[in-house]
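Quick one:
INPUT:
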C-alpha cells in the first residue's frame, strides 16, 4: 500500500463556501490503493466463478447417493458410473442399506424415511407400493424385491428400522435397539461433517428468515433515528430504559434456551448424543455467559452516566440542526444497507459454493462415488474472507465520508438560509477524488481483523487440547487486537473528516486529525463519550429486539442444526445495520467538533476572519468543556481532601502519644513561676 496524492493541481472542486485551505483545490488521493483494490477484486471474481461453476449447494443440504446423484435434484451423467445422472426430484433423504456400517454401506435417495420396522422383503415391496418410497436399489423393480439379495452392498437392505431424518439422512429413531458399537458408528458418521459445512447449510436454509430479520432491524433503527431527530428528550430516556430492559430480557432468553437445550441433550442416552448437539448447547452457554457479563457492565455504566442525560439531549439538539438542513441525509443509510445486503448475499453464496466444491471420484475402498474438494479450495476461503472484510470496511468508509462531507459543506456555508442538500455533490467528490483514501483506510482495519479471524480459527482447532498458558496468550492477543481495531476505527473516522475538509490523502489527514484530537482532548472527551454511549445503547436496543424475534422464530424450528450460529449472524447483521443508521449522528457530532476546532484555529472571530460556527454551537462546546473542567476540579479537590484526611488520621496517633507523654498545663505554669 502507498500513501500520497496524485494529480494535485489547479483543477478540481472546492466543496466548501469557506475552505480552510485557501487557494487549494482537490485532486485524486491514494490512487495506487484504488488500483490494488481493483486487482484484488479481479481475483475474487475468479474465485467466485470457479466456486459457482463447480460447487453444488444442494449437495450439502440433501446429501448424495453412492452413484454421485444429489438427492432431490435432477442430475447429470458421471462418466463410467452406472446409475448416475438420475432424476432424484422428490427424493430428499439418504437411506443406508446397512445403518450399522454407514461408511461402507450402499446409499440411495428415498422419498421418505421408513416410519416402521420392516423385517422381510415381502413387507418392503408392500411398503414401496403403499408409500412410493423404494428401499431397494434403483434398478430393482418392486415386484422383484423378494428375489433380491440383502446386505451391506444391497441391492436390498437386511433390516429396515423405524427412522427419522437427521441432516437429511435416515437414522433409526430408537437407536437403543442397536448394539453399542453400531451406535458409535452412526454417531461417528454424523459427526464426520465439518462444523462450517453444517453451519453454512443452516445459513442457506434460513436465508429468508435472515433477510426478514435484517429488514426488521433496519426498520427499528430508522424509527429510532427519526424519533431521535424529532423528540430527542423522550427518545434518549426511552433508549436508556428499553436498552436496559432489552439486555436483561435477552440474557434471560438465552439462559432459558440454554437450559432447555441442555435438558433435551442430557435426557438422551450417552450413546445417542451427537457432537453437533453438544456444540449447540456449548454455543448457547457461551452466549449466555457473555450476555450476563455484558448486561452487568452495561447496568453499571448506565448508573454512572445517568446524570449526563440533559447534556446528551443538548448534544443531539445541536447535531440535529445540521441534519435538519439536510433531511435527505436520514435516508443515506438505506443506500448503505442495500449495498451491504447485496454484498452479504454475494459473499454468503460464494462461501457456500466454496464449501460445496468437489469433483466426483471413485473411492477405491468402497467403490462408491465421493466428492472431495481440491486442496486449493482451502486457500479460497481465506482469500475471500480478506476480500469480504476489506470491501465491507470500504463500503462503511464511503458511508462515513459522504455524511462528513455533507456536514462540512453545511458548516462552512456562510449563508445557511440559501443552503441546499449536498448529498449528490458529496458522492461525486468521493467517486472522483477520494475512493483510494477510503480503500486505504479500509485496508488498515482489515490488517487487524484478519489476524483476529486467524486467532479465532486457531482457538477452534485447538479447542479442548490447548494448555492454560496457550489459552491465556490467545485470549490476550485477541483482546489487544480488538482494542487496536477500535482505536484505528476512531482515527480513521476523523481522518475521513479531514479529507472532506481539506482534500488531503489518507496518511496526512490521519496525522492532522490525530494532532487535532490530542490538542483538543478535553472537548473530545466532553462531547464524544456521552453521545457515543447513547448511540451505543440505541444499537444495543436494535440488536436485542432483533435477537428476541429471532429466538422466538428460529427456536421453534427443529430443522436447524446450529441455529445459535444463525442467531449470531443475525445479531452481527443487526448491529452493522444499526451502526450504519446511527452513524449519521455519530459522524455529524464528530464532524461538527472537528470543524469547530479547525474554525477556531484558522479564524479569530474578527470582522476580517469571522467564525463559521453558530453562536449556539460555540456556547454548547464551551459550556460542556467548562462543565468537564469543573468535574475534574471537584475530583481533584475530593482526592486532595481524602489524602488530607488520611494524613490527619496518620498524625492523630502520634499526637495522642505526645499528649500522653507531655506534662499538664498547670504543671508547666507552676514550673515557669518557680524559675522566675
Amino acid at each position: 500500500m502507498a500513501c500520497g496524492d496524485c494529480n494535485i493541481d489547479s483543477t478540481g472542486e472546492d466543496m466548501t463556501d469557506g475552505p480552510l485551505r485557501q487557494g487549494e483545490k482537490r485532486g485524486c488521493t491514494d490512487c495506487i490503493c484504488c488500483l490494488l483494490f481493483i486487482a484484488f477484486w479481479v481475483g475474487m471474481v475468479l474465485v467466485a466463478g470457479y466456486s459457482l461453476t463447480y460447487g453444488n449447494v444442494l449437495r450439502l443440504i440433501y446429501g448424495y447417493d453412492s452413484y454421485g446423484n444429489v438427492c432431490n435434484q435432477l442430475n447429470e451423467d458421471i462418466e463410467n458410473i452406472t446409475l448416475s445422472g438420475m432424476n432424484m426430484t422428490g427424493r430428499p433423504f439418504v437411506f443406508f442399506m446397512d445403518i450399522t456400517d454407514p461408511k461402507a454401506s450402499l446409499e440411495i435417495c428415498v422419498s421418505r424415511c421408513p416410519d416402521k420396522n420392516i423385517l422381510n422383503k415381502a413387507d418392503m415391496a408392500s411398503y414401496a407400493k403403499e408409500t412410493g418410497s423404494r428401499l431397494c436399489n434403483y434398478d430393482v423393480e418392486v415386484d422383484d424385491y423378494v428375489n433380491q439379495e440383502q446386505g451391506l452392498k444391497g441391492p436390498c437392505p437386511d433390516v429396515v428400522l423405524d427412522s427419522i431424518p437427521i441432516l437429511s439422512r435416515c437414522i433409526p429413531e430408537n437407536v437403543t435397539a442397536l448394539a453399542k458399537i453400531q451406535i458409535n458408528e452412526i454417531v461417528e458418521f454424523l459427526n464426520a461433517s465439518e462444523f462450517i459445512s453444517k453451519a453454512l447449510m443452516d445459513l442457506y436454509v434460513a436465508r429468508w428468515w435472515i433477510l426478514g430479520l435484517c429488514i426488521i432491524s433496519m426498520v427499528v433503527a430508522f424509527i429510532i433515528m427519526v424519533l431521535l431527530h424529532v423528540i430527542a428528550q423522550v427518545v434518549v430516556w426511552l433508549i436508556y430504559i428499553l436498552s436496559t430492559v432489552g439486555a436483561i430480557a435477552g440474557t434471560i432468553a438465552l439462559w432459558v434456551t440454554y437450559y432447555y437445550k441442555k435438558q433435551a441433550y442430557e435426557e438422551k442416552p450417552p450413546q445417542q448424543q451427537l457432537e453437533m448437539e453438544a456444540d449447540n448447547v456449548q454455543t448457547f452457554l457461551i452466549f449466555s455467559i457473555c450476555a450476563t457479563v455484558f448486561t452487568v457492565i452495561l447496568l453499571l455504566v448506565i448508573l454512572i452516566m445517568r446524570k449526563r442525560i440533559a447534556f446528551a439531549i443538548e448534544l443531539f439538539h445541536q447535531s440535529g440542526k445540521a441534519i435538519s438542513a439536510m433531511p435527505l441525509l436520514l435516508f443515506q443509510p438505506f443506500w448503505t444497507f442495500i449495498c451491504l445486503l447485496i454484498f452479504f448475499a454475494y459473499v454468503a453464496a460464494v462461501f457456500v459454493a466454496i464449501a460445496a466444491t468437489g469433483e466426483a471420484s471413485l473411492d477405491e475402498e468402497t467403490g462408491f462415488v465421493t466428492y472431495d474438494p481440491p486442496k486449493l479450495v482451502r486457500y479460497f476461503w481465506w482469500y475471500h474472507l480478506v476480500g469480504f472484510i476489506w470491501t465491507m470496511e470500504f463500503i462503511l468508509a464511503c458511508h462515513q465520508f459522504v455524511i462528513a462531507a455533507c456536514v462540512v459543506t453545511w458548516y462552512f456555508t456562510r449563508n445557511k438560509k440559501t443552503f441546499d442538500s449536498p448529498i449528490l455533490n458529496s458522492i461525486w467528490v468521493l467517486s472522483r477524488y477520494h475512493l483510494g483514501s477510503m480503500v486505504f483506510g479500509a485496508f488498515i482495519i482489515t490488517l487487524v481483523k484478519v489476524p483476529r479471524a486467524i486467532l479465532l480459527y486457531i482457538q477452534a482447532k485447538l479447542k479442548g487440547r490447548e494448555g492454560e498458558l496457550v489459552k491465556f496468550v490467545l485470549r490476550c492477543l485477541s483482546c489487544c487486537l480488538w482494542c487496536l481495531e477500535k482505536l484505528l476505527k476512531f482515527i480513521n473516522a476523523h481522518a475521513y473528516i479531514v479529507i472532506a475538509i481539506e482534500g488531503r490523502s489518507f496518511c496526512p489527514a490521519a496525522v492532522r486529525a490525530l494532532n487535532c484530537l490530542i490538542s483538543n482532548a478535553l472537548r473530545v472527551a466532553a462531547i464524544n463519550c456521552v453521545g457515543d454511549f447513547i448511540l451505543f445503547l440505541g444499537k444495543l436496543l436494535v440488536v436485542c429486539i432483533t435477537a428476541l424475534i429471532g429466538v422466538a422464530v428460529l427456536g421453534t424450528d427443529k430443522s436447524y442444526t446450529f441455529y445459535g450460529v444463525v442467531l449470531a449472524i443475525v445479531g452481527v447483521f443487526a448491529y452493522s445495520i444499526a451502526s450504519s443508521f446511527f452513524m449519521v449522528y455519530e459522524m455529524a457530532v464528530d464532524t461538527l467538533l472537528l470543524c469547530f476546532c479547525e474554525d477556531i484555529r484558522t479564524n479569530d472571530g474578527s470582522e476580517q476572519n469571522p467564525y463559521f460556527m453558530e453562536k449556539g454551537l460555540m456556547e454548547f462546546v464551551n459550556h460542556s468543556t467548562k462543565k468537564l473542567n469543573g468535574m475534574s476540579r471537584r475530583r481533584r479537590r475530593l482526592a486532595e481532601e481524602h489524602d488530607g484526611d488520611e494524613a490527619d488520621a496518620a498524625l492523630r496517633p502520634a499526637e495522642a502519644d505526645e499528649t500522653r507523654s507531655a506534662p499538664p498545663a498547670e504543671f508547666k505554669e507552676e514550673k515557669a513561676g518557680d524559675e522566675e
